[in-house]
Design goal:
The complex is a heterodimer of chains A (480) and B (301). Chain A has 3 domains: 81 residues, SRP54, nucleotide-binding domain (Four Helix Bundle (Hemerythrin (Met), subunit A)), CATH 1.20.120.140; 192 residues, Rossmann fold (3-Layer(aba) Sandwich), CATH 3.40.50; 136 residues, 434 Repressor (Amino-terminal Domain). The N and C termini of chain A lie far apart (57 Å). Chain A has 21 helices and 8 strands. With 480 residues, chain A is α/β, with parallel strands linked by helices. The radius of gyration of chain A is 26 Å and the shape is globular. An 8-stranded mixed beta sheet of chain A has the order 3-2-4-1-5-6-7-8, with helices on both faces. With 301 residues, chain B is an alpha/beta fold. Chain B folds into 2 domains: 85 residues, Four Helix Bundle (Hemerythrin (Met), subunit A), CATH 1.20.120; 191 residues, 3-Layer(aba) Sandwich (Rossmann fold). Chain B has an 8-stranded mixed beta sheet with strand order 3-2-4-1-5-6-7-8, sandwiched between helices. The chains are: A alpha/beta (480), B alpha/beta (301). At the A-B interface, α3, α7 and α10 of A face α1, α3, α6, α7 and β5 of B.
């Protein structure tokens, strides 16, 4: 006998199930996506006919709002939140004067962007300060798999870096090996972990508080078990923890990939616990993160931190304006620029920007850029911040996704003469052979690089025409 | 399945209950009807594009079948969605012609891979099958311990290496062990990974190659685990993983919450990857075979 799930399976001779997709290898019927089908672009289409108008009319605004509504829904903002938001935007956008420097489409995006950022909190919100009367308790709560344990360790490291002395407490007594996980991560960040096996979480918390008071810890971070907001018993347990430990901070840990259900979860946790803030995790993927807005809308609690990777230091303060850009599909250009500014020679990059705009970019510049990029950290993290990149990525699939490939590209360019770098079109087949031999690569590698460089120039051109219309023209914009 | 979900959720779920019944409450079919239908689907995470497609098709079919009443429309809609979810679909799990059967489990972080593995193992072990688990998540802290604890609970063997080791090597050893010990089923755990990390997808490809090399007919299922609370990003997950290795089916976890998991409808529509199993709780018994009719009922309820 086998489980009922398998009973109907035809046992195929080869051992493969005939329905197994491997044999048919279905082509992913992915929507034909243009490189940068951002909201701003869509709106530009809507407003193309309206050039020269000084004010936004009702009809224009409604057309634009339709696109905005779709963009927000695609970003997983809860549909009720979208509805309220769109109707408030409508009032503000109607009759708004179109600034000289902006097209009507950009004007609407500007309003939407401002309001979105405003809704998610005007500015960064800080953690509750330590107090003199004993340790400050920070309690983490959330659904299973939202990332509480990792967040606990990251938060501990964050506090430690800011000269605090936190204690981690393993209060997830249900999930197998959860305690062990916190212990390992505590060791990794160099923060003590208090655990008492699978005892009652409230007791564990009280013991931990005593220990913290004794040993002079100024913060206590409580990692609780993941639970469904529907689970009355486990929700009551959190209520008891709150009552007994009196935490100064109760943070809901929310997976940034959460869909429409985010409002139900946040509402239920908030109702039961009175949350003080939110941590948004797994933002390093390609999710647009509309859950951020949903959660903010129902709890009115600030989003305090975001998790942006599996490493313990991949933890950042929340920036409402950047999140607004991301939700609208405009990419996290600001973070990228910030990173770039740390390593990029400003004068050089201004010159480069000019070159990009005038299409005069050469392989020489490209090499220069590669070297600067390498200083900015793992390439894939950077690329993910670029608007539309995840879509672009599929078209430019072979374009330097890994740092290994960068090395190869560098080798190829290094084997070119200066003239070849400036004018790649002169590279004929005998030059290609020489370059490949010189760089220890194949002629195909050289071909690919030249082809990709051409593609990249095209992409950058699209970028720069987009960027021209942006509200803030950031100085020294990095081309990637 | 549905009865159990409903029982598990009790009253609380009613608070979130949708107005599907009102929607099909016998009044005439007008634009408002289609708007409400759209809202129900979007609120279930079906996504804008697939929702539009469903609504348009529904509108057409209502015309063709000359349906004018909402109650009849309700039945038609259910039929339409079931057809969509079941088209060229094999929801049962594939078994090897001769053991061992090998399942490879993939997914982003925190979707419930390890728990889903334990539940599958439990079901097979209950039927007297010899089940082996491969602790392929060598990355996350205590992931091996987690699977180890589960293996004892569900009565399965486990092959593990040190934390931080090469996952392909663990799986290679596990497959050899499964062959040597004549296990019926080997389930390979892998580390959670975001689908946008190219190097981590390369690792998945390597694991897949290692399995195929040793046993060309395997893996007999490559299952992507998806959290029911996931929104539109689920589609991206399916597409990226599918690009790396041929994903044969989905496991939708955490359906015992208030999320309705509508993203699987979009995934089926756009990638044709079928849903095979659903997770409805934390206990080892809480995994069920996917049944389209019941799922659709819950999706719209």
């Amino acid at each position: 006998m086998v489980p009922e799930w398998c009973i109907n399976v035809r046992e195929v001779q080869s051992g493969k199930n005939s329905s197994n997709s491997r044999e048919v290898s279905p082509v992913i019927s992915r929507r034909e996506v243009t490189l940068f089908s951002t909201l701003a672009e869509k709106l530009q289409g809507v407003f193309r006919k309206l050039k020269g108008k000084g004010k936004l009319g009702e009809k224009d605004v409604d057309l634009a709002l339709r696109e905005i509504r779709l963009a927000l829904l695609e970003a997983d903002v809860n549909y009720k939140v979208v509805r309220d938001f769109v109707s408030s935007i409508r009032e503000r956008a109607l009759g708004a004067k179109v600034l000289k420097s902006l097209t009507p489409g950009q004007q609407v995006v500007k309003i939407v962007h401002e309001d979105l950022a405003g809704l998610m909190g005007e500015k960064q919100s800080k953690l509750v300060p330590a107090h003199s009367g004993g340790p400050q308790v920070i309690m983490l709560a959330g659904l299973q798999g939202s990332g509480k344990t990792t967040t606990a360790a990251k938060l501990a490291l964050h506090l430690k870096k800011n000269n605090h002395n936190p204690l981690l407490v393993a209060a997830d007594v249900y999930r197998p090996a959860a305690i062990k996980q916190l212990e390992i991560m505590g060791e990794e960040v160099g923060v003590a972990v208090f655990s008492r096996g699978k005892d009652d979480p409230v007791k564990i918390g009280l013991w931990a508080l005593k220990k913290a008071a004794r040993e002079g810890n100024d913060y206590v971070i409580l990692d609780t078990a993941g639970r469904l907001h529907l689970d009355a018993e486990l929700m009551a347990e959190l209520g008891n923890l709150k009552k007994e430990l009196n935490p100064g901070e109760i943070l809901l840990v929310v997976d940034a990939m959460t869909g429409q259900d985010a409002v139900n979860v946040a509402e239920a946790f908030h109702q039961k616990l009175g949350l003080t803030g939110v941590v948004l995790t797994k933002l390093d993927g390609d999710t647009r993160g509309g859950a951020a807005l949903s959660v903010k809308a129902v709890t009115n609690c600030p989003i305090k931190f975001v998790g942006v990777g599996e490493k313990v230091d991949a933890f950042e303060p929340f920036h409402p304006d950047r999140m607004a850009s991301r939700i609208l599909g405009m990419g996290d250009v600001l973070t990228l620029i910030e990173k770039a500014q740390q390593v990029v020679d400003e004068e050089k990059s201004i010159a480069l920007e000019k070159k990009i705009r005038s299409q005069a970019l050469t392989l020489e510049d490209f090499l220069d850029q590669l070297q600067q990029i390498k200083q900015m950290g793992p390439l894939e993290n950077l690329l993910e911040m670029v608007p539309g990149f995840n879509r672009a990525n599929k078209q430019l699939k072979n374009l330097s996704l890994s740092d290994k490939q960068i090395l190869k590209v560098e080798a190829v360019i290094n084997s070119m003469t200066r003239e070849e770098r400036l004018r790649p079109e002169i590279i004929n087949s005998s030059r290609r052979r020489r370059i490949s031999q010189g760089s220890g690569t194949t002629v195909q590698d050289v071909n690919r690089l030249i082809k990709q460089f051409g593609q990249m120039k095209k992409v950058l051109k699209q970028f720069s025409s987009l960027e021209k219309g942006k509200m803030k023209s950031p100085k020294g914009l990095f081309p990637f | 399945m549905l009865a159990r979900i409903k029982k598990g959720l009790g009253k609380t779920r009613d608070a979130f209950k949708h107005k599907f019944e009102n929607l099909f409450g016998g009044r005439e079919i007008n634009q408002e009807f289609f708007d409400e239908l759209e809202e129900i689907l979007i609120s279930a995470d079906v996504g804008v594009e697939t929702t539009m497609k469903i609504v348009e098709l529904h509108r057409e079919r209502l015309g063709v079948e000359k349906i004018r009443e909402r109650s009849a429309a309700r039945e038609l809609l259910k039929r339409q969605l079931v057809e969509m979810l079941e088209s060229n679909q094999q929801t049962a799990l594939a078994l090897a012609a001769s053991p061992p059967t090998v399942y490879l489990i993939l997914g982003v972080n925190g979707v419930g891979k390890t728990t889903a593995i334990a539940k599958i193992a439990y079901r097979f072990a209950q039927e007297g099958k010899k089940v082996l688990l491969a602790a392929g998540d060598t990355f996350r802290a205590a992931a091996i311990e987690q699977l180890d604890e589960w293996s004892r609970v569900v009565g399965a063997g486990i092959i593990k290496h040190q934390s931080g080791g090469d996952p392909s090597a663990v799986i290679y050893d596990a497959l050899n062990a499964a062959l040597a010990r004549q296990a019926d089923l080997l389930i390979c755990d892998t580390a959670g990974r975001l689908h946008t990390k190219a190097n981590l997808l390369e690792e998945v490809k390597k694991i897949f190659r290692v399995i195929q090399k040793l046993l060309p007919s395997a893996p007999h299922e490559t299952l992507l685990v998806l959290d029911a609370t996931t929104g539109q990003n689920g589609l991206s997950q399916a597409q990226y993983f599918q690009e790396a290795v041929p994903v044969s089916g989905l496991i939708l976890t955490k359906l015992d919450g208030t999320a309705r998991g509508g993203i699987v409808v979009a995934i089926k529509d756009r990638t044709d990857i079928p849903l095979k199993l659903i997770g409805i709780g934390e206990k080892k018994e809480d995994l069920e075979m996917f049944r389209a009719a019941e799922f659709v009922e819950a999706l719209l309820a």
